[in-house]
Design goal:
With 360 residues, this protein is an all-alpha fold. It has one domain: Orthogonal Bundle (ABC transporter involved in vitamin B12 uptake, BtuC). InterPro entries: ABC_transp_permease. One of its GO terms (molecular function) is transmembrane transporter activity. Its main location: membrane.
């Protein structure tokens, strides 16, 4: 019975903490919009309509959710080892640049070959960036949060240099870009929907990440490292290798998101890749409590929040960036809510006592 109660308490914590953070964030955001003279209830109604109120809204939401799933995995996977990595934006940008360059270089080759090469190039670029963060942490003790953030700025600078220099399409005058991908090399929509296949890729990657971390020896070892690195070393686990491999896999997921954005949305690499999906993916991962399966519905929720920004601007005159304020409030409240765990009885599972202690 005690074990059942512990499991229920853990499940309750996983649901109540993010839920309470969302409710508190809604209240704070409502107060924020009320200060500028807008009815909060009208804002919430328009946000719902813009995100989930029609089939068009749903398709827009799901399209935005696809890269969020993959960039959230860039944070959720290393978190299993106790790492806080926020460099998904850089991995996405480099992945998109590598995929676009590969697609242009292989123009004329069979479609399957080019699409596969683009995917591998994007994943390799992302894996190199975030895997490098893991290597710096393991070999030099460099803080992974700071290094991943700084490398993101470097990645964006590299992308800007390449699309404005060596890879620039002469025809892209006002908005420097790489040469466009041939239509055959672009990812099409799902049957009967205006949502690209990147959503399916994201869901499959999230499921695969959950299986890897929850149902394999590798995942058990990674979680052991996250729980107690010193004990893991004493047990003979290859901590450094686990760290580098996991961060490389995380970067590969974000790099794949860049490839999807290039092949399914933009058709080329340019500054439009820096759309904030990487930073929002960090919030998605935290709200999902680093669970790869929970990342899917949370990414859909935040895809809807992002999709509703345009409607708020058209109907109420609020800036499109108002939804970013809401996301920032959620992040701050979520971090603050973590302090509630263990301090309120609802979040504290009953300890499992040995039989002898119970009899005593």
């Amino acid at each position: 019975m005690d074990r059942i109660m512990n499991a229920l308490a853990a499940l309750l914590t996983a649901l109540v903490v993010p839920g309470a953070a969302l409710l508190a964030s809604l209240a704070l955001f409502g107060a924020f919009v009320a200060l500028v003279g807008v009815n909060p209830l009208e804002v919430y109604e328009l946000m719902y309509r813009g995100a989930f109120g029609s089939w068009f809204s749903w398709q827009n939401t799901l399209t935005r959710a696809a890269p969020l799933i993959l960039t959230a995995l860039c944070t959720a996977l290393p978190a299993q080892l106790g790492l806080v990595i926020i460099g998904g934006e850089g991995a996405l940008v480099l992945g998109g640049l590598a995929a676009a360059a590969t697609g242009v270089a292989l123009d004329g080759a069979p479609v399957a070959l080019v699409m596969g090469a683009m995917g591998l190039a994007g994943m390799a670029a992302g894996a190199a960036l975030i895997g490098g963060v893991g290597a710096l942490r393991h070999r030099r003790g460099v803080n992974e949060t700071i290094s991943s953030l700084l490398l993101t700025y470097i990645a964006i600078a590299v992308m800007n240099h390449m699309v404005e220099g060596p890879l620039k399409d002469p025809a892209s005058l006002n908005k420097p870009s790489t040469a466009p991908l041939a239509e055959a090399y672009q990812i099409g929509p799902l049957p009967g929907m205006d949502v690209h296949w990147g959503l399916v890729l994201g869901v499959l990657c999230a499921v695969a990440a959950w299986v890897l971390m929850s149902r394999t020896v590798f995942g058990f070892a990674a979680r052991m490292v996250g729980g107690n690195p010193r004990a893991a070393r004493m047990a003979g686990l290859p901590v450094g290798r686990l760290l580098i491999v996991t961060t490389a896999l995380a970067g590969a997921a974000a790099g794949l998101a860049g490839m999807v954005e290039v092949a399914a949305v933009h058709g080329r690499a340019n500054a439009a890749l820096v759309a904030g999906y990487g930073s929002t993916g960090v919030l998605v991962a935290f709200l999902a409590r680093q669970n790869p399966l929970a990342v899917i519905p949370v990414a859909i929720l935040f895809g809807g929040i992002g999709a509703s920004g345009g409607l708020l601007q058209r109907r109420l005159g609020l800036p499109d960036a108002s939804v970013l304020v809401f996301q920032g409030i959620i992040f701050v409240v979520l971090l603050a809510s973590e302090a509630m765990q263990g301090r309120v009885r609802l979040f504290a599972p009953a300890p499992i006592l040995p039989a002898a202690a119970k009899e005593a």
